[in-house]
Amino acid sequence: MAYIAVNDTANFVRLDINASGTFASANAAMAQTANVVTVPGLQDVTVSASPGTFRWQQLDSLSEYVTTTPSTNEISLTLVLDDTSFYTGANGTPGIFTITNNKTLTYFRLYWAGASTGDRYIEGSGYLTGLAPTVNPGSPVWTAPLTISVSGDFVSGVR
Amino acid sequence: MAIRDTLLANLSTSLSGGNVTISNELPFEAGGVRLYDKNMKKLYLSYDNTGIIEMFSTLNYADDVFQKEITLNAYFTVDAKNQPSDIDTVVSKVLNSRLSVANCHIRECTVVSETNDDRITYTFEYRFLTL
Fold first, then answer.
1. pLDDT digits over B49-100, tens only?
2. What is the pTM for the complete model shown?
3. Which CATH architecture has domain B3-55+65-130?
4. Chain B nearest CA to A138, separation (Å)
5. Domain count, chain A
6. Of A132, B1, B45, B61, which sees the most CB atoms within 10 A?
């Protein structure tokens, strides 16, 4: 069995976002590399692709039946805030605070381990939610959780 | 400017006129005798010990956030039987001297005392954290 390690330079996790406008697809948005911002300072990332379920019981069965309902897809992460990506943005994509505040549709691509040719990613579009910057005297650097609430499917691909 | 310099300047002022004075020398040992044991009622301050410790780890390491930890020790010895009348004030001033160091988000100082024969040695440990 091979595991997916992300502990060397060639295999870093990378999250790119593009909130510069509306694109036909996430793939088209990511192709506009001039408008893409790589989110710095990721501390942890969780990908949730969770189908909903509906269960019912029948009088002729000893066990429940189940069927799926549409999935709830999201990416949740924690990041160390960086003034460029948080306040001003870059490359035509506004800062994360502005994107959240303006509820701008955001295209994203998350590379699982490395972002070179042949490396795998998932992409899609959604809205940035759950931004809750926090700081305290013992750790005087701003960090924030952030969720990308995905609209529609994750699309898996290979660079 | 080393934190030692800031503390020395603060302590020189705050301890002046009291029973415990301050030395600019480092608390070295000579002939097996520690300087603060030899010269009682004189406070000696060590040099800055610095370490870099991680505050936040990130997934690409390049964005990791580090903080600098600086520790110093101060020592003085007094007669255990007849402590200076202002010993509480002196201890308090040494503890409070940590506040003279700026731009640190943690400024701590603890003191322990140890009695040997007829002497009592006060050991202060300063700890500062900065980005």
1. 999 999 999 998 888 999 999 999 999 999 999 999 999 999 999 999 999 9
2. 0.82
3. 2-Layer Sandwich (3.30)
4. 7
5. 1
6. B45
Q: Where exactly are the structural domains of chain B? A: 3-55+65-130
Range of the domain at A47: 9-158
Q: What is the pLDDT of residues A40-68, one digit of tens each?
A: 999 999 999 999 999 999 999 999 999 99
Which B-chain residues 27-56 have CB contacts (< 8 A) with chain A? 55-56
ipTM score here?
0.78
DSSP letters for chain A: -------SGGG--EEEEE-SS--SSHHHHHH-GGG-EEPP-EEEEEEEEEEEEEEE--TT-SS-EEEEEEEEEEEEEEEE--HIIIII-BTTBPPHHHHHHHT--EEEEEESS--STT-EEEEEEEEEE----EEETTEEEEEEEEEEEEEEEEEEEE-
Whether residue A1 lies inside any domain: the answer is: no
